[in-house]
Amino acid sequence: xxxxxxxxxxxxxxxxxxxxxxxxxxxxxxxxxxxxxxxxxxxxxxxxxxxxxxxxxxxxxxxxxxxxxxxxxxxxxxxxxxxxxxxxxxxxxxxxxxxxxxxxxxxxxxxxxxxxxxxxxxxxxxxxxxxxxxxxxxxxxxxxxxxxxxxxxxxxxxxxxxxxxxxxxxxxxxxxxxxxxxxxxxxxxxxxxxxxxxxxxxxxxxxxxxxxxxxxxxxxxxxxxxxxxxxxxxxxxxxxxxxxxxxxxxxxxxxxxxxxxxxxxxxxxxxxxxxxxxxxxxxxxxxxxxxxxxxxxxxxxxxxxxxxxxxxxxx
Length: 315
Fold this sequence. Notes:
Radius of gyration: 22 Å
Strand order of the largest sheet: 6-9-12-15-20-23-26-29-32-34-35
CATH class of the largest domain: Mainly Beta
Strand content: 25-35%
Helix content: 10-25%
Number of helices: 4
CATH architecture of the largest domain: 3 Solenoid
Number of domains: 2
């Protein structure tokens, strides 16, 4: 769509005819994409954006760099939500190539594989699995019954996806109108899973808003784990049952999170960190190779001493 067509859709006057092919963040946008600024703490990113156009308030319009069109509005985040619907792909494609299935791959009855999808060799796809359009799966991967893989997602080789898991469902993203109505932000990215990854039963990996939710090589995910949109789970990390990872969190390599532990969004955990069961990560952890526990989170040894002192008070 042209910038003018997008502007017309949200009621902004703009005569720019340049084509927009998608939406992206301030830092990752290119000259054919549209972005937005809602929070002032990202002003430095606005000044350096390469986007063709940016949704921005009048207050911050002067910070838009030369060559980028300022689409001035009162609520950039809300306008982004409305525009995201324009760029969402079809739920199901009726046109396209038949799926390609490699040699030695076994597909049980009652499996759906969408258009333009590619399944590698020596895979096993069990009954009830749904593989959406334009999905890529590597070699020697096992998909257990009733697994759902939404469109455009990729799964590497030597992976095991257990029954009932959902890969690529929409991230939990909404913008509020002034009267409290929730407007859906369409999640137009995907999920990318590396090689040698095992995901337990009934877990969910949400697709990204713009780019990819990433699960790197060698990750182990237990049953009933939720990974939010735009997260990155570093290689060799372990997420135990009922862990919840909020959107845009980054776990570096070999992070271990115990059962029912969780993170707030938009934070980073250093490599080789361990979060004990029910630990709540509310701020980024920058120092690697440490163990943490409790809520608010403190170092594990300190938490143990604290529990001991509390127990002594009850004697």
